Amino acid sequence: MPELPEVEVTRRGLLADLLGRRIAAVEARCTALRYPLPRRLAGLLGKQILRGIDRRGKYLLFRIGQGTLLVHLGMSGSLRLVTAAEPPGRHDHLDLVFGDRTLRLRDPRRFGAVLWIEGAAAAHPLLASLGIEPLSDAFDGAWLRAAARGRALAVKPFIMDSRLIVGVGNIYASESLFRARIDPRTPAGRLSLARCARLAEAIKATLEAALAAGGSTLRDFIHGHGASGCFQQQHGVYGREGEPCRVCGARVRALRLGQRSTFFCPRCQR
Fold it and tell me: Where are the domains of the chain?
């Protein structure tokens, strides 16, 4: 699933190419994604100018005209810029045509979402309950310690809870805990302020490193220009079960936490 770095890389690339351009046409080929496509989408978006692209967690927010087009890429979706002449593929469900360039949504599993929001986007039910942005200045060890106080939940599913912290998906949770040298099974409420500070810094550093590398490309995720990310080449533990730890040489272990695969070094992470 595209996580925060992949979504942010997509946002930055599309913003550089499309900001201020007018939508000439809209073509919807499949109206049944996670939610039905908005009615009159072509009428709502046609001839409107793209005023900006924001991100909230893993949601992209296209500010168009007097409203916002909310897009979630689901499990395997991607947004690509293609030439207007490039024919759509089987899983290409929506086109926004900007003159000679087309923004194309591809979603093989159709778990993505495209919704139209009038008025304040932050008040939409899908966004209103989201937690803190981990790359914001407000996210630090003190915030994390206060949020974790009294919680018996293991720290890995704790930092993956989007109602608390947005965008820290499975890959980056494992990598952040490895960077912070914290066992993913540790109850969140048992973390000291010093360890919370180390973990907050590790989450920021991991996400920033992933952004610099263009994200992680697993399965079929690609960026807006068709490129792939390469952060998976830097993974310390994720997907490396049985391989030697890059720090101490111990064998990386895997287990299930919160029904998700979790990778860690039993020697480095305590």
Answer: 4-128, 141-264
